[in-house]
């Protein structure tokens, strides 16, 4: 799909490699653009949006890119700022969906200047033009370079010192995961940014997470606008992780041993540290921070991947500000792991175990004038505990086992709206007891 650009250190030639029309070469100026979208159109249609405005841009040979800036109407989070997205499509609907989500850089073929002008009349964009192995801006300055990688030898040549451009676009034609990891390792500490072409949001996610740090960006090559929506949802979930969740201090007001119930153990694909757990509760209005089983004991080995989260009816916090019933969790679903200070991250559910066990009811109230009662059922066992607030000038205490819990003890709570429809918070009158 791509021609291979020459890898000659210090070379200034921009035309020694020929790249077929489908794929442009480009380097992205990170100071200027937050994301961009690359599109290939039979009718030479290209669009780009910058800082909330749409602007037409041309490229060579039936290709175009959409460019978005950080000042778009969509609020960008830390993950949006550190990772960039370019869109490659023939679909105007895909372009529109990308623009609406704050991705606003467009790539055009050099033959599509009329199309660039057309889109520029609709919105403010900065056009980029494909010229053989390079992507040029309107002043004919090189912005990026493209390389197709289909062999280990080609991958081995992909080193920061071999490229004059600020950014490199890579099309991984054979293997993807291992080459992406090798690229991340090779370019770590470099000022250059590497983008990879992906045809599915799941593929883009692999590139963005390779070796934890991921590549600097992706080119999403799709014709279905739902792919843009899905990728933006992924960015939103990652942005949530950079936000500190507000947790309230609550006072335990009632502890009562109950009878048997079907409780759920949630086993994650990630290890949890002391102070971390899941937010769960009988009512969505108040979710308790239930500690993981990462603490050592004399009678049973620690299981730092597990949270004994409560009965099947219990709500659990999931990404996107939503809740799910514990009974609905399955392998592959995502939940939010939170620590004592409200720091959060997303984790994948690896397994859910439902077993019949004896339960205990815990009720608590906030420390303000609000007399709302929050409650949770948990398995009555020494390995199940609630996370405590951090106390200054005192030894760090992470959790209190439910078997040692007393009225008056302090625990952490996430207070939020109580009305839910399919896990989504809504505004309506509701009474739950």
UniProtKB/TrEMBL annotation:
Note whether Amino-acid biosynthesis occurs among the keywords: yes
Question: What is one GO biological process annotated to this record?
Answer: amino acid biosynthetic process
3-dehydroquinate synthase C-terminal domain: residues covered:
250-433
One GO MF term attached to the UniProt entry: 3-dehydroquinate synthase activity
Which residue numbers delimit the 3-dehydroquinate synthase N-terminal domain?
83-235
Q: Which UniProt keywords apply?
A: Amino-acid biosynthesis, Aromatic amino acid biosynthesis
Top-rank taxon, per record:
Eukaryota
Pfam families for the chain: DHQS (PF01959), DHQS_2nd (PF26558)
The protein depicted here goes by the name 3-dehydroquinate synthase
Q: Species name for this entry?
A: Tripterygium wilfordii (Thunder God vine)
């Amino acid at each position: 799909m791509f021609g291979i650009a020459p890898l000659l250190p210090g070379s200034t030639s921009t035309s020694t490699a020929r790249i077929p029309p489908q794929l442009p070469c480009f380097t992205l100026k990170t100071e200027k653009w937050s994301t961009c979208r690359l599109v290939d159109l039979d009718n030479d249609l290209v669009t780009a949006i910058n800082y909330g405005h749409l602007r037409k841009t041309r490229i060579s040979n039936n290709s175009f890119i959409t460019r978005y800036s950080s000042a778009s109407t969509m609020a960008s989070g830390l993950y949006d700022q550190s990772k960039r997205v370019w869109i490659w499509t023939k679909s105007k609907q895909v372009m529109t969906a990308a623009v609406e989500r704050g991705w606003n850089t467009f790539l055009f073929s050099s033959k599509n200047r009329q199309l660039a002008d057309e889109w520029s009349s609709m919105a403010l964009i900065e056009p980029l033009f494909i010229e053989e192995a390079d992507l040029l801006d309107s002043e004919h300055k090189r912005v990026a370079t493209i390389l197709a990688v289909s062999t280990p030898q080609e991958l081995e040549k992909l080193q920061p010192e071999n490229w004059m451009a600020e950014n490199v676009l890579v099309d991984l034609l054979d293997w993807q995961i291992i080459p992406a990891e090798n690229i991340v390792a090779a370019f770590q500490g470099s000022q250059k940014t590497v983008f990879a072409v992906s045809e599915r949001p799941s593929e883009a996610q692999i590139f963005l997470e390779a070796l934890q740090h991921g590549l600097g960006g992706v080119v999403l090559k799709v014709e279905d606008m739902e792919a843009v929506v899905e990728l933006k949802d992924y960015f939103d979930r990652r942005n949530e992780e950079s936000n500190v969740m507000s947790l309230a201090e609550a006072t335990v007001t009632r502890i009562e041993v109950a009878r048997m119930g079907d409780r759920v153990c949630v086993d994650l694909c990630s290890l949890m540290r002391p102070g971390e757990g899941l937010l769960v509760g009988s009512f969505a209005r108040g979710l308790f921070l239930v500690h993981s089983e990462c603490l050592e004991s004399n009678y049973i080995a620690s299981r730092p991947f597990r949270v004994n989260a409560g009965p099947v009816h219990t709500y659990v916090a999931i990404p996107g500000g939503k809740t799910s019933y514990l009974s609905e969790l399955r392998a592959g679903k995502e939940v939010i792991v939170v620590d004592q200070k409200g720091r959060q991250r997303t984790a994948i559910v690896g397994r859910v175990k439902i077993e019949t066990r004896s339960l205990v009811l815990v009720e608590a109230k906030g420390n303000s004038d609000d007399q709302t009662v929050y409650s949770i059922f948990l398995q009555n066992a020494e390995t199940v505990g609630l996370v405590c607030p951090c106390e200054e000038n005192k030894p760090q205490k992470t959790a209190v086992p439910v078997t040692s819990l007393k009225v008056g003890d302090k625990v952490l709570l996430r207070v939020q709206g109580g009305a839910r429809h399919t896990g989504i918070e809504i505004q309506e009158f509701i009474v739950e007891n």
